[in-house]
Amino acid sequence: MTMKRKEKVGKGMQCKRFKLNIHELRGILSDEIMSLREGKTTPANVNAITNATGKILQSVRMEMEYSKLLGKVPDIDFVNSNVLPTNETKNKIGP
User: Fold this and answer.
1) Is 12 part of any domain?
2) Cα–Cα nearest to 89, from 6, 35, 32, 23
3) In this structure, are residues 19 and 1 in contact, taking their beta carbons and an 8 Å threshold?
4) Which of 2, 18, 35, 70 is the most exposed, having the fewest neighbouring CB atoms within 10 Å of its CB?
5) Structural domains of the chain, count
6) Who's near 81: CB < 8 A, 6+ residues apart?
7) Top-confidence residue, 67 or 3
8) Is residue 33 a part of any domain in this protein?
9) Is pTM beyond 0.70 here?
10) Which of 7-16, 17-26, 45-54, 82-91 has the highest mean pLDDT?
11) In which domain, by residue range, is 55 found?
12) Does residue 85 form part of some domain?
C-alpha cells in the first residue's frame, strides 16, 4: 500500500489516504486470518479489520448502485485495478 496524500476533511481535519484494491484487501484479510491462527494477533484486531473491510465494500456497492441509477458504467479504481490474480488464484476462486 502506498500513501497517496493528506487531504483536508471538514474543518482543519486531515486524513491519510492510500490506494488499495480488491486483491490487496483479500491479501490483508488472508494475512490477518493466518496471524490469528498463529497467535500473532488478537480476535479484536481481526474483528476491527473485517469491520472496516465491510464498510469499504459497502461504499463500493453504493457507488456502483449510484452509477447504475445515473445510467453510467462505474469507474472504481478499487475494483478496476490493473493488479489481477494469477491463474493459480483464479482456479481457486472461480472464473
Assistant:
1) no
2) 23
3) yes
4) 2
5) 1
6) 21, 22, 23
7) 67
8) yes
9) no
10) 45-54
11) 19-70
12) no
Please state, in angstroms and rounded to a whole number, the distance separating the CA atoms of residues 40 and 32.
Answer: 9
17 beta partners: 5
Within a domain: 36:
yes
Amino acid at 20: L
Say how far apart CA 41 and CA 30 lie, in whole Å: 13
pLDDT tens, position by position, 21-63: 888 889 999 999 999 999 999 999 999 999 999 998 999 899 9
Nearest to 89 by CA among 34, 20, 22: 22
Q: Which amino acid is at 74?
A: P
Where helices occur in 7-42 by DSSP H, the ranges are 22-37
Dist. CA 19–CA 56, nearest whole Å: 12
47 CB-near residues (< 8 Å, 6+ apart): none
